[in-house]
């Protein structure tokens, strides 16, 4: 493309995205295509000839409408309440475009100093905005933040750094054991598999997924017992992942008590590492009234959350803070000849490649920078508070309706609820009615929710539960009200 053609097509693409956002409410929220339907509309072989200049792009715009859009689940729809949100915003998308346009690969400070230094500065801003411990900031001299692609990469990096640190403290290898709760995100199991800590998905010796308390939070007593058992059996506890905002129900693990247990058991003295995964809920720390969630973070080794979930920054953008950046370097630094350069050798610069799994890295800080500048702290707080307010409203409607109940107390903007059991009804039948309700709601295309199964506590059966996760950029009270009314109507039929 010539510069002028790129300019004209670029304007059209931005127009297309702006129009897409304006028409979001006209699409069924969940893609209604059968497996293979999108592929069947695409040629089986790559084009031999390129497009016929700018005019040829008409076919691309047509395909976007006819091939791509029908197969898209509209995560940006204001009636998307499934999983956790993955929110995009104008400033973030423009930042993404700038990043692509600059085409920078910022693996080393020297391969684009601005990519590294903007990232460091923006992550220090964010640490300040969230009142995170000073030890996580780059100016602590020992800690700092880095943008990873996903929370899964963050926990893998933390686990590998943890094992390396304990190995150095002990001066030997060991039979490693990591701890989570049954409610911890599956990315920790994946990290254990990738790092070789767990032999397979069923390896409950090396990754202990502990039963929770009745609120689905990690139980410090159970953690203490498990660590002592493992030490007595000659195994080496080295890593704990606590969650702020579990995926199923938004439970908050008691970070401060976890840290205390770890101090008592010798875990900390042997170099053991606590990571806090706050993938979704972490963004809430931008609001002072939710900061109690972060109690005890000054005692943890790393903390990660996803602005790509609930801080207006499009996928992918995970922010990972550690108070000991040297531990990442110890575990992950490799220096082949072809990367050697004077800046790295001077020791005066940060090379973020040593803080992550891949070598190469995109200039993701641009989108976060634009989000923080565009909305400011005040705008971000207002955005988060509005979602929490909407969830409070919804939870109130659930509680006031005799047919429904909250499955657990609301957590920030996540409401887990279900149709109540009928008198004498078997739990499997209650589950089936809830599953049926969810299927009909999602098939309507008017909204999209997903489910979870919460384990039974104290001998009670497990429960199939609907999750309303509010967090799409354009969700207003009217959308939440509409989905509630629809649920009510479907529950009657
Ligand atoms: N941790 C928690 C608590 C999550 O809810 C999720 C995803 O929803 C993840 C980790 C994984 O996130 P990512 O896709 O960034 O790896």
Automatic annotation (TrEMBL):
Gene Ontology biological process terms from the UniProt entry: amino acid metabolic process; carboxylic acid metabolic process
Keyword Nucleotide-binding assigned: no
Sequence positions bearing N6-(pyridoxal phosphate)lysine: 309
Database matches in Pfam families: Pyridoxal_deC
Required cofactor(s): pyridoxal 5'-phosphate
Recorded GO MF terms: carboxy-lyase activity; pyridoxal phosphate binding
GO cellular component, as recorded: cytoplasm
Keyword annotations from UniProtKB, A to Z: Decarboxylase, Lyase, Pyridoxal phosphate
Similarity annotation: Belongs to the group II decarboxylase family.
Listed name of the protein: Amino acid decarboxylase
């Amino acid at each position: 493309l010539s510069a002028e053609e790129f300019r004209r097509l670029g304007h059209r693409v931005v127009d297309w995205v702006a129009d897409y956002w304006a028409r979001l409410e006209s699409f069924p929220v969940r893609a209604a295509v059968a497996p293979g339907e999108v592929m069947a509309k695409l040629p089986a072989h790559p084009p031999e000839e390129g497009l016929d200049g700018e005019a040829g792009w008409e076919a691309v715009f047509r395909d976007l409408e006819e091939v791509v859009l029908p197969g898209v689940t509209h995560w940006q729809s204001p009636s998307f309440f499934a999983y956790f949100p993955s929110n995009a915003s104008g400033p973030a998308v423009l930042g993404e475009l700038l990043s692509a346009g600059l085409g920078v690969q910022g693996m080393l400070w020297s391969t684009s100093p601005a990519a590294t230094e903007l990232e460091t500065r923006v992550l220090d801003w964010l640490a300040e905005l969230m009142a995170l411990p000073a030890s996580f900031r780059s100016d602590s001299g020992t800690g700092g933040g880095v943008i990873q692609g996903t929370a899964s990469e963050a926990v893998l990096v933390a686990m590998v750094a943890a094992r390396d640190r304990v190995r150095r403290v002990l001066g030997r290898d060991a039979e490693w054991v990591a701890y989570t709760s049954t409610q911890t995100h599956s990315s920790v199991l994946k990290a254990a598999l990738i790092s070789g800590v767990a032999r397979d998905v069923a390896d409950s010796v090396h990754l202990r997924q502990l039963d929770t308390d009745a609120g689905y939070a990690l139980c410090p007593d159970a953690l203490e017992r498990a660590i002592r058992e493992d030490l007595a059996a000659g195994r080496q506890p080295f890593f704990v992942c606590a969650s702020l905002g579990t995926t199923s129900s938004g439970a908050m693990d008691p970070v401060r008590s976890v840290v205390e247990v770890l101090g008592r058991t010798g875990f900390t003295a042997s170099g053991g590492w606590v990571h806090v995964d706050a993938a979704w809920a972490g963004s809430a720390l931008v609001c002072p009234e939710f900061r109690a969630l972060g109690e005890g973070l000054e005692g943890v080794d790393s903390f990660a959350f996803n602005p790509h979930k609930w801080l207006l920054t499009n996928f992918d953008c995970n922010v990972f803070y550690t108070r000991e950046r040297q531990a990442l370097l110890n575990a992950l630094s490799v220096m082949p000849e072809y990367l050697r350069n004077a800046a790295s050798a001077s020791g005066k610069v940060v090379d973020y490649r040593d803080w992550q799994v891949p070598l190469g890295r995109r200039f993701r800080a641009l989108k976060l920078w634009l989000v923080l500048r565009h909305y400011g702290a005040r705008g971000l707080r207002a955005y988060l508070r509005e979602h929490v307010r909407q969830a409070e409203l919804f939870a109130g409607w659930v509680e006031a309706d005799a047919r429904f109940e909250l499955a657990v107390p609301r957590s920030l903007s996540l409401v887990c609820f279900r149709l109540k059991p009928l008198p004498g009804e078997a739990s499997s039948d209650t589950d089936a009615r809830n599953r049926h309700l969810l299927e009909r709601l999602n098939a309507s295309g008017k909204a999209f929710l997903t489910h979870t199964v919460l384990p039974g506590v104290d001998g009670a059966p497990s429960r199939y539960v609907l999750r309303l996760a509010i967090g799409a950029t354009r969700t207003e009270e009217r959308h939440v009200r509409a989905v509630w009314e629809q649920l009510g109507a479907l529950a009657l039929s």
